[in-house]
Write the structure tokens for this entry.
Amino acid sequence: MKSIMEFPIVKQTTMRSLVVEAPNMLALCERPVPHPGPTEVLIRVAAAAICHTDFVTMAGQHDAARFPSVLGHEFSGVVEMCGEGVSNLRPGDRVTAMGFAYCGMCFACRCGRHTACENIGAIPFHIDGAFQEMLVVPSSMVFLISDSLSFEEAALTEPAANGYAAAERGGIDAGENVVVIGPGPIGLLALQAAAMRQPGSLIMLGTRDERLTLASRFGATDTVNVRRSDPREAVMEITRGKGADVVLFCGGGEETWMLSSRILAPYGRVVVEALPDRCDACWPVPIFDFTARHVSYLGVCGFTGSQFATALRLIEAGKMDVGSLITHRFSLEDYEEAFETSQKRKEGAIKVIFKL
Ligand SMILES: [Zn+2]
Ligand SMILES: [Zn+2]
């Protein structure tokens, strides 16, 4: 095992860091470059994407939000320095990372249920994220990427893994009718993952035509603009009266929520991937569904290490298209414009990326 002294020592002592100092108060600061602990690595960030979760956290509406902290859980970069106990990575490696580290030792981890880890360490709740020049993360979070994969695309492995996990949670069988509600980044990625499971019909419901067009490119058999057509009537017509076997609920908020049960076939499954704007939100469920119609509601949040590795492999193989989601690129200095573009979806923004 190499000692840390044998690796190139970072000459840079300070770095630019976008710090959330208090709810909705951001500042670009100069901070000391952090030093990796024995099982950690220092990564120089190449690309980091803004996510809807960042806005919820920044506003202090997430239970686990802390201040000050640094956001950015979707990123890629190059390993700059390794702790003395790290054997799976070396300086110079091109990498991406899961947004969280699981302990591997608790009961949930030992059962392979990493997303339910009792000692989870997640960006930005326990670990500072990638909206800064360099960050330190546990090496267990980090995955090597192929030389041919761009840093921009690699940064979107995290949302791709979320989409993949949602489709897998739905247990979609070939020939089933699948409806995706919400063509946001996760919805568009869940749709791509669902398409690989050979559904009979794959329907995207949304309000923005340009995103519905993208959904068609990603494998949707039908798209419905819910502002122009009644979504229930449309789904029933497309599925010849059966309804959806699986609904992947990937956005739309509470007002869209009840639509899931209205379009669901008996014995259908609703996969709830969307994050409400508040952690204490309670959305109604028509309880009769559970009994008379044998409906299941399945929650999904995050992904396992295996699902992350699979999503990365699918991106590298060109089977999941994350590049088409990247609409805007900014430097860290232009963070105000970057966040505004992402939040207000200006100029058709889907994924907004910081290039460092
Ligand atoms: Zn995210
Ligand atoms: Zn654990």
The mean pLDDT is 94. The two ends are 31 Å apart (CA to CA). The first helix runs from residue 52 to 58.
